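Dear U.,

For the methods section draft, I wanted the exact inputs and outputs in one place so we can describe them consistently. I've listed the two proteins in the order they'll appear in the manuscript figures. Please don't edit the token lines directly; just add comments below if something needs changing.

First protein:
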Amino acid sequence: MNIALIIIIVIAIILAIVGGLSSALNWLLWVAIIVGVIALIAFLFRVLSGNRNT
């Protein structure tokens, strides 16, 4: 019975870690999308301001 309890605890810990990682990866994906959009806006701003000076 102790071995079954230890196995259940280990499986629960592994599932908690995997669930936390997927949540963190989902959050990081949104952060990456936002940073990408900001970088694209900054790039377009540089290109447009560069064309105006020529």
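Second protein (the one for the lower panel):
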Amino acid sequence: MTDNYAVVDPDDLEPEDDRPCDMRRLSEPAGLEHVAVNRFRAEPGQQVPLAYHYHETQEEAFVVTAGTLHVETPEGERTVHEGSIFAAQPTAPHRAYNPDDADETVEVIAIGAPPAEGDAAVYEPDE
């Protein structure tokens, strides 16, 4: 057996504390150093993963594996159905969530590159 391959079941990992929904970090257990990969499960009314924010250097993509994700942007709300992807370029503000009136849990695989701990900045839209 080599260290060149990994199979990771997110349900075998502990969820992150202090997150608005269930978040499992997949990159480290998979041996990935150049990309951040996380799995999120959000019940109705929960946010995925942070407040309204943007990243200074990181490209971010949400692959919806179950349910329907809603993403607020300065240009309006985007609806991302199961099997689709939402992508945000660096400095593009967004807030992903599962609305209060949703009928189901939304599950998302989030991918960010380069991995950038502390790269997220809060975005405060003009009132």
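Candidate sentences for the figure legend, describing the second protein: The first strand starts at residue 22 and ends at 25. The radius of gyration is 15 Å.

Thanks,
Y.
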